[in-house]
Amino acid sequence: MGRILLPTTLFTSLATAAVLALPAQPSLARPPDTEHLDAYTARVTSAQVADLVRAGYDVGGRKVVGDTLEVSLVLTPGESRKLARQGVDISLTRVKGGRTVREMAAAQAAGGYTVWRSYDEPGGIRDQMVAAAAANPSVAKLVTLGTTHQGRDILAVKLTQGANGIADGARPAVLFSATQHAREWISTEVDRRLMRWYLDRWRANDPAVKSLLQTTELWFVLVANPDGYQYTFDHERLWRKNLRDNDGNGVVSFGDGVDPNRNFPNHWGYDEEGSSSLPSSETYRGPAPVSEPETKALKWLLDRVRFEFQVNYHSNGQWLLYAEGWQVATPTADDPIYSAMSGNLDNPAIEGFHPGLSSDVLYVTNGETTDYAHATTGALAWTPELSEGCDGCGFVFPDDEALVQEEFLRNLPFAQSVARSAVDPANPKTVTGLTTKPFYLDSDDPYKRGLPGTQLSFGLSYGDPQPVAVIAKRSLGAVSAKYRVNGGPVRSTTTTEWAGGETTRPAAVHYHQVRGVVTGTRAGDSVEVWFEGGGQRSPSFTYRVVSDTGGRVLVVAAEDYTGASPVQTPGPHYARYHLDALRANGITADLYDIDARGRVAPDALGVLSHYDTVVWYGGDDVITRRAGWGPGNADRLALDELLEFRAYLDEGGTVVYTGDFAGEQYTGNVGTQLYDPKGEIACNPLPAGVDPRRCLVLAGSGDGTNDVLQ
User: Fold this and answer.
1) Rounded to whole angstroms, how far apart are CA atoms 94 and 592?
2) Bridging pattern class, strands 526-533 and 480-485
3) 15 to 5, 18, 211, 658: CA distances (angstroms)
């Protein structure tokens, strides 16, 4: 990856430039504890969230309340007391009637369960999977994937006509898996009911199901973590991990276990935000990639069958998450399929759920299952985070048949759409009504405006030759880049597949990004660009060549003098300072003034790619926000700047980042700043009628975007 340099390493005239400090080492260490677990709510700053994540605490859902974040934690009382002593505003989460989540779980167990069944008990989940296959031999096959640390079978059921007589993976296949995290019982039950739904309709001669199972394989892994799941019935309801004996003392305690959903090889151990190296952490990634029998089992199945899709059920939070999760704002090339099948917050595939890149709408993860499934095996994959069932219930979904059935039925249409789409994944049968297109220059989803790979058009070019790119269906075959200069004759050039940057190499199964090069232009020219292939033509975009000096250094003025804090006189105020300092050192540089360019970040392809080094500086403004917006708000522009520079760095560029407040808005030191992914509204206070999930916390502080600065 390219480098971010401190300015004094390039020229001494900028000796007053700010130096970004690395994040302080967290002070929130988990204490040794053998007490019980319960659910807590903490009111924290975004910086404290980052400390909690890095210290290995079990940080769950979060929402913005005023100028703080409310986050869910699963802790022992000892951990809670320690956090309180360290200044964290924390309290037990209480459900209707005033009970804690642990007390509610105990009441469920004391009365005997109506819905829930353990793995081991007679008639439990293991027995039900065995019985389902035995009772339906013409369509169901039981497969043992492996055994756990404690010797339990990890089971799968395959549904397809003639299941026992044809090779696994012979037909387009979908995997519905559940309960990698032991305490998430609702995920097992939704998956179990989905398996029964298809079996019952097969037996009833439902023509749609008959037709589907004659052409498609549906696989079900109801409990991917049998040891942990059984442990939540026998000992600790809120246990999350598997039962690896980390300290080797022969006793399962709170320092034991590995998170099976952080143990896959893709980006394993990438950072301490998306997983943890601490054995006591609830996101402990394990001693090595694929160290756990549960991971080996699921990986073996994914590798062997080569599914078209995977739906990996979790809880809780009502999100519909998809790859990639290891780094924010990193969509795969197959994002058109994800977007069409998942929808967005205005039109979600699952009622009441928030669809999106998992790293953006929830948090970053690495060593995660769905990233592996897509990037390595070609299976597009989702993580539905199911509902909690009642306010504050969290992972302890009520033992209520009506509520459980309601959750199943809410998720059924999406599951059906995934199953129906396996025969032709690039042209899915969606519940959103959205369809996929041959080419994409701009994302059709306004929530993804400006993200790399979804917004490939640009309005300004700073040189020639100029690279241009499009997302294209692989089935189109060879793609040509077409262009004309100043309305003249059409010119054509070939394209090649983009292999990715030095760090970011998004998965590309059914779509891929291809690039061509426009040549023969000069400053002042207007260039129209489009792409053709497989008898199809893309939309076009037009850019203007505004500079072509051939210089190798660009100064980007990010002063935000047209913004809101503080109100400033027209700028830029410091551009000449930087340009003169460079010139004094024998370097002639070009200028890109973000405010003068209509508050548009410099495009990585159109602008930044023409330079070896970019000096990115800020002015007197700390938070990038529009005029008229109050504290607690950031403009989408702040994120766009970060992402465009990340894309430039990823392809070998060098950035000198300077200014009195350089990077401060991204590090969380200024508190919680919200932005609207659509780039339309101020989020604080939230306008009436706007879904609070629409607004996100600006980069940094545990959401992974400040990997650019790190």
Assistant:
1) 53
2) antiparallel
3) 13, 9, 72, 10
- As a whole number of angstroms, the distance between CA 421 and CA 430 comes to 8
Domain check: are 526 and 558 in the same one?
no
**How many domains, the chain?**
4
CB atoms within 10 A of CB 105: 24
User: Quick check: 510 and 337 in contact, CB under 8 A?
Assistant: yes
537/556 same-domain check: no
| Shared-domain flag, residues 279 and 204 | yes
- Indicate whether 655 belongs to any domain: yes
- The pTM of the full predicted model, rounded to 2 decimals, is 0.93
Residue pair 299/371 in contact by the 8 Å Cβ criterion: no
Beta strand pairing call for 553-558 and 613-618: parallel
Token pair 């004996």 is found at 245
Angle at 631 between CA 627 and CA 637, to 5 degrees: 55
Given a cut of 70, is residue 89 above it in pLDDT? yes
At position 484, the amino acid (one-letter code) is R
Taking each helix axis from N to C terminus, what angle separates 185-203 and 207-215, rounded to the nearest 10 degrees? 110
Tell me how far apart the alpha carbons of residues 295 and 307 are, in angstroms, rounded to a whole number.
17
Q: Identify whether residues 268 and 375 lie together within a single domain.
A: yes
Report pLDDT digits (tens) over 207-244.
999 999 999 999 999 999 999 999 999 999 999 999 99
Domain with 507, as residue range(s), is 446-545
Mean per-residue pLDDT, 643-662: 94
Rounded Cα distance between 239 and 653, Å, is 45
Please choose, from the candidates 361, 360, 289, 366, the residue with its C-alpha nearest in 3D space to the C-alpha of residue 326: 366
Distances (CA, A) of 95 to 65, 344, 392: 19, 30, 5
Ramachandran angles phi, psi of 47, nearest 5°? -65, -40
CB atoms within 10 A of CB 207: 8
Same domain membership, residue 82 and residue 59? yes
Residues 469 and 414 in one domain: no
More confident residue, 403 or 345: 403
| Burial (CB count within 10 angstroms: exposed 0-12, middle 13-18, buried 19+), residue 586 | exposed
Which parts of 235-334 fold into alpha helices (H)? 293-305
Report CA-CA distances (Å) from 2 to 502, 614, 650.
Answer: 8, 11, 6
**Residue 410 located in a structural domain:** yes
Spell out the residues 6+ positions from residue 159 whose beta carbon is closer than 8 angstroms to its own.
Answer: 139, 140, 195, 198, 199, 202, 213, 217, 218, 219, 220
Question: In the predicted model, what is the mean pLDDT of the chain?
Answer: 90
Radius of gyration of the chain (CA): 26
pLDDT by residue (tens digit) across 541-581? 999 999 889 999 999 999 999 998 777 788 999 999 999 99
Are both 578 and 682 inside the same structural domain? Answer: yes
- CA angle, residues 484, 490, 493, in degrees to nearest 5: 90
**pLDDT value of residue 710:** 65
Phi-psi region of 417 (alpha: psi -120 to 50; beta: other; left: phi over 0): alpha
Q: Distance between CA atoms of 290 and 116, rounded to whole angstroms?
A: 30
Are 623 and 678 contained in the same domain?
A: yes
The owner of tokens 């460079």 is 582
